[in-house]
Design the sequence.
């Protein structure tokens, strides 16, 4: 089973306005896109299951496997990008043939929340340009205490 999408969205909206800070995950203090997802996980699911190692900020990075997607697959049910609805975690491939390295949380059929350099955590329209970049989608699992 997966977490209540309304609870996921409410948790994500609680991070709006948090400044961007690379590799951080502190509400109202600073986070990057993965840090936002980690913070929502802690609020909705429970403690993080494993520490996140340092990672590269290079959105054009390529490689033989999808590090971020593989990590998400270990903890979250995967759905097709076109099946993802509000509350889903989506991974964006920012350049063709690069690894998916940007993360957002869908808040509606045409909106999402993410942390973006210089802007911090924002909710914005899921434009066609953003929608085309979605490479993977996952659902937050049910909280551990249920």
Sequence:
């Amino acid at each position: 089973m997966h977490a209540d999408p309304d609870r996921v969205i409410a948790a994500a909206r609680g991070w709006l306005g948090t400044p961007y800070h690379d590799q951080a995950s502190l509400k109202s203090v600073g986070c990057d896109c993965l840090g936002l997802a980690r913070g929502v996980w802690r609020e909705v699911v429970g403690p993080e299951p494993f520490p996140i190692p340092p990672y590269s900020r290079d959105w054009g990075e390529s490689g033989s496997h999808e590090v971020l997607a593989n990590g998400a697959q270990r903890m979250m049910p995967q759905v097709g990008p076109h099946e993802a609805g509000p509350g889903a975690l989506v991974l964006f491939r920012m350049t063709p043939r690069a690894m998916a390295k940007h993360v957002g949380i869908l808040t509606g059929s045409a909106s999402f929340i993410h942390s973006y350099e210089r802007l911090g955590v924002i909710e914005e329209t899921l434009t066609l340009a953003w929608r085309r970049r979605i490479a993977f989608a996952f659902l937050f699992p049910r909280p551990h205490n249920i």
